[in-house]
Design a protein that fits this description.
By secondary structure, the protein is of the alpha/beta class. It has helices at about 15-25, 45-55, 65-75, 100-105, 180-185, 195-205, 230-250, 255-275, 280-295, 295-310, 325-330; strands at about 5-10, 35-40, 60, 85, 90-95, 110-120, 135, 145, 150, 150-155, 165, 175, 210-220. The chain folds into two domains: about 5-220, Spore Coat Polysaccharide Biosynthesis Protein SpsA, Chain A; about 230-335, no CATH class. The chain contains eleven helices and 13 strands. The chain starts with a strand and ends in an 11-residue tail after the last helix. The mean pLDDT is about 95.
Length: about 350
């Protein structure tokens, strides 16, 4: 019986399924993994396509759109295997994409989750924004990756071809122990979209497990399938969810010295948006901060739940300096230039 469930959460993804399921089936050993599509109430012809052209793929019909986090939580609770792979519908896998991650988890009981090298589907030689070669946070909570800092993407020249511990692996392709996923509470629906995988990975690290980048596994991500990179809705979610992420997972001793300067940096970002006449992005940051104030009780409740689960901690994979300062003022655009 297969030990891994590769689960694609689908919502009106007919074109992605038609394009990317054939290589997924071709390069996934059925002796190791079964493939599942959990449908989030699609109204296109996705389900007809699956039944007609991909009979080997298991289908879970959720009946309505629960969003990314809750959709996965409801789907995975119905699948009993030792390991899950959360795979975006807009990801094209390559040969030998699964085995290195499967081997890493099966050989190390303290490894909780891992992720592959994520390159751009549009520019195959370049890393992709959502994950690249493993994810980190700086001292003020800004996420960045080996191979991607803010909007600068490096080409993959083998410079990150080593397995190493990271703070987070991308939700575009994330392999995790099923029992740990459930014990950690799964993805947090409060985030709605963006950074929920960082929150999950931070939680499991605070529970004493490791997260690893597996360079021998490579996938290609289209990206921007939910929201374009420069969309003001994405700006809103990123600013909002970043603060929620910190409130949930920082140790109490670090809370003030991280959140206070981080809020100042948010206000500086607002001024920059205004100076560039990006009024929608300016409004998005204001809206994000109003949401945080309005939902402060809910955020405190989420933190209490986290405290019951683990001891929030700052981990070695968190950059002890400011990525904003290094990128914008010192001109350090690439990971290798950082004094990590």
């Amino acid at each position: 019986m297969a030990e891994v469930a590769v689960v694609i959460l689908n919502w009106n993804g007919f074109d992605f399924l038609k394009r990317f399921l054939p290589p997924l089936i071709r390069y996934t050993d059925p002796g190791i993994a079964g493939i599942w599509v959990a449908d989030n109430g699609s109204t296109d012809a996705s389900l007809d396509l699956l039944r007609r052209d991909f009979p080997s793929v298991n289908i879970l019909e959720l009946g309505q759109n629960f969003g990314f986090a809750e959709g996965y939580n409801r789907s995975l609770e119905q699948i009993e295997v030792p390991y899950y792979v959360l795979l975006n519908s807009d990801v094209e896998v390559s040969e030998n994409w699964l085995e290195p991650m499967y081997r890493a988890l099966s050989e190390n009981s303290r490894l909780g989750a891992c992720g592959p090298k994520i390159r751009s589907w549009h520019r195959k030689e370049a890393f992709e924004h959502a994950g690249a070669a493993g994810g980190f946070l700086d001292k003020f909570g800004y996420p960045f990756c080996r191979g991607r800092i803010f909007n600068v993407l490096e080409n993959d020249k083998g410079q990150f071809d080593n397995n190493m511990d990271v703070l987070w692996a991308s939700g575009a392709c994330l392999m995790i122990r099923s029992d740990l996923y459930k014990k950690a509470g799964g993805l947090d629906p409060f985030f709605f979209a963006h950074m929920e995988e960082i929150d999950l990975c931070w939680r499991i690290k605070s529970m004493g497990y490791r997260v690893q980048f597996c360079y021998e596994s490579t996938v290609f991500h289209v990206g921007g399938g939910t929201l374009p990179v420069n969309d003001h809705k994405k700006t809103y979610l990123n600013f909002r969810n970043n603060i929620i992420l910190l409130c949930k997972n920082l140790p109490s001793s670090s809370m003030f010295r991280v959140l206070f300067p981080r809020l100042i940096l948010d206000y500086i970002s607002m001024v920059q948006f205004m100076a560039r006449f990006e009024f929608r992005n300016f409004s998005a940051v204001i809206k994000a901060h109003f949401f945080l104030l309005w939902h402060i009780r809910s955020i405190k409740r989420l933190r209490r739940q986290n405290l019951d689960l683990c001891e929030p901690a700052v981990h070695p994979e968190m950059y002890s300096k400011s990525i904003v300062y290094n990128f914008f003022l010192r001109g350090k655009k690439h990971f290798g230039e950082l004094d990590f």
